[in-house]
C-alpha cells in the first residue's frame, strides 16, 4: 500500500503572496500620488478661488486625504 504525503499548504503560494504585496504597494503609491497632487493643486489656489469653491485653507489636507483614501 502506498501513501502520498503532501507538505504544501492549501491556498498558499509564494508567487501569489509576492504578487499581492507588490500590487498593494502599487496601489498605495497611486493613492499617495493622488493625495500629493490634490494637496498641491488646492494649495496653489488663491483665497478667493478657494472661497468660490466653499473651501477653507484649513480643509485642504482633509480634502486631499478624502480624495485619495476616501472617508
Write the layout of secondary structure elements.
Blueprint lengths: L13 H30 L3 H7 L6 H10 L2
Helix pairs in contact: 1-3
pLDDT < 50 stretches: none
Mean pLDDT: 91
What portion of residues is helical? 55-70%
Number of helices: 3
Report Rg. 23 Å
Order of helices and strands: HHH
Q: Measure the end-to-end span.
A: 61 Å
How would a crystallographer describe the biggest sheet? Answer: none
Class derived from helix and strand content: mainly alpha
Which band does the percent of strand residues land in?
A: under 5%
Number of domains: 1
Task: Please tally the β strands and state the result.
Answer: 0
Inertia-based shape: rod-shaped
Notable traits:
mainly alpha; 3 helices; 71 residues
Q: Care to give the gist of this entry?
A:
The protein has helices spanning 14-43, 47-53, 60-69. It is mainly α.
